[in-house]
Each structure stands twice: as structure tokens, then as C-alpha cells.
Design goal:
The chain contains 4 helices and 14 strands. The protein has about 250 residues and is α+β, with helices and mostly antiparallel strands. The chain has a single domain, classed as outer membrane lipoprotein receptor (LolB), chain A, CATH 2.50.20.
Length: about 250
């Protein structure tokens, strides 16, 4: 039986994805990811094809390797800044408080490399470290009524994020199946626009060094209520590999 108390349910969800003790031994997750979809076209961004990246486990810090070009790296450092480094590690581009830059009209039609580093960095960091990011102090949880899905009933938790976590929006709804695996997240991608409400579906779970994670993710729009449209696919993420990186002794 699934716990009815939201904090007990979150604890059970974390255990189902690999457990607290394993997570606290890790420094990062190294991942290989492909990404495409309508959002890439709309913002004039090239798709990602088997791109290498790193999500740190304890803080919102994310690295794209060989981005925007081979030999360079791009980094998200929370909401404080995004940077691009050359092959020698020298910073060649920097933007402080990158979220505030999305207020400009240009961002409605195209994103530059630092824009993408911010959006892609915080979004993919969220995806890779969920549900373990819920260990961070300041999260608030509320149980919502379950919903019927094609393969059983899904529990729902409304999650309010602390200000310390860069994410799509302050309040999101997470759906978990009978195995307590994450199957869907509803949010508004405010960096894209206040209208950008979406359902993010998670499928094809695999285990990577004890960590269980969905490897097929698809994002579709929601116009009214919580009913997603069948298309277009705003973002398609395929996770080819995840390698847990232990903390240095």
C-alpha cells in the first residue's frame, strides 16, 4: 500500500529509485543524452545527439561537455551564472543572473548559447536528480487525489520548490505509478513563457549502478486543466547512459 502522508510517500519514492544511502555517496551523475523537439526548432537551437553531460548530486551545478563546440564546456552554476570555457579551461563567455535575461523580446524567437546553457542545464539537472533533489531543505509537499492511467492508478504529489533550486516554476505536480516510479510531471516552463504549461512523461526505466531512472522522456503541451495534447512534442529526451560518480575519499 502506498503511504498517504506526502513525506512518507516521497521517502518511499526515493527508496524505489535507489535509496538515500546510495545517493549520499555520489558526487555526480555522468550522462549521455540526445534531445530534440519543437522547442529546439522554435528557439533555433541545434539538437543534441549523444551529448555528454554531468549533473552534480548535492547542488544545482550542471556541465555540458563539447558544447557549444567540440573542446568547449558550458556550465550552469545555480541561478547565479552560466559560463563557457575553452579547451584550456579559460572562461570565454559569462552571464550573471541568467534567468533575468529571458525577459528580452529576442528570447521569444531565438536563444544564444548562454540562454541554452541556462535552460538546458537547470532542466536536465532537475530531470536527472529527481526524486533525490527532494533531500534539499525547503521543499513542501501536498498529496493530491490519484488519477487513473492506462496501467493502473498514479499517485500525485504537489511539490513547492525552495528558491535555492532553479526549475521551471515554483509549484509542480509529480505522478508516481504502483512501483513508485516517476511517470509524469506537470509544470509551466516560465523561461519559455507564462503560457508554456506542459506534461512531461517518463518511461522505459533502467538501472544504472543502483540508480533507477526513466530513459525516455517526452514533453507535450497542456492547454486546459491537466489534459495534455497529443502533440507537438515540445522536447524529446533519450537517456542512453548514466554513470554514478562516487564522492572522492
Amino acid at each position: 500500500m502506498r503511504p498517504s502522508d506526502p513525506k512518507e510517500l516521497i521517502a518511499a519514492v526515493i527508496e524505489a529509485h535507489g535509496g538515500e544511502s546510495l545517493w549520499k555517496e555520489l558526487e555526480a551523475l555522468d550522462a549521455e543524452v540526445s534531445a530534440s523537439g519543437f522547442l529546439f526548432t522554435a528557439k533555433r537551437r541545434p539538437i543534441l545527439n549523444h551529448s555528454r553531460m554531468r549533473a552534480y548530486t548535492q547542488v544545482p551545478h550542471f556541465i555540458f561537455y563539447d558544447f557549444p563546440i567540440t573542446g568547449q564546456t558550458s556550465e550552469l552554476i545555480g541561478d547565479e551564472e552560466v559560463i563557457i570555457k575553452d579547451a584550456d579551461g579559460a572562461v570565454i563567455a559569462r552571464r550573471e543572473h541568467p534567468r533575468s535575461a529571458f525577459r528580452g523580446l529576442r528570447r521569444a524567437f531565438s536563444w544564444d548559447d548562454l540562454d541554452f546553457t541556462y535552460f538546458g542545464g537547470y532542466a536536465t539537472w532537475n530531470y536527472l536528480v529527481t526524486p533525490f533533489m527532494f533531500f534539499t531543505p525547503g521543499f513542501e509537499f501536498a498529496t493530491l487525489g490519484p488519477v487513473e492511467a492506462d496501467r493502473g492508478s498514479w499517485s500525485r504529489i504537489q511539490v513547492t520548490f525552495p528558491d535555492s533550486i532553479p526549475t521551471h516554476c515554483k509549484t509542480q505536480v509529480f505522478y508516481f505509478d504502483d512501483e513508485l516510479h516517476l511517470r509524469r510531471v506537470d509544470y509551466t516552463a516560465l523561461v519559455v513563457g507564462s503560457w508554456a504549461k506542459a506534461a512531461h512523461f517518463c518511461d522505459e526505466y533502467r538501472e544504472f549502478g543502483g540508480i533507477k531512472a526513466p530513459t525516455r522522456r517526452r514533453v507535450t503541451p497542456i492547454l486546459f486543466g491537466d489534459k495534455p495534447l497529443p502533440g507537438p512534442t515540445l522536447v524529446a529526451l533519450d537517456i542512453h547512459d548514466i554513470r554514478p560518480v562516487p564522492k572522492q575519499q
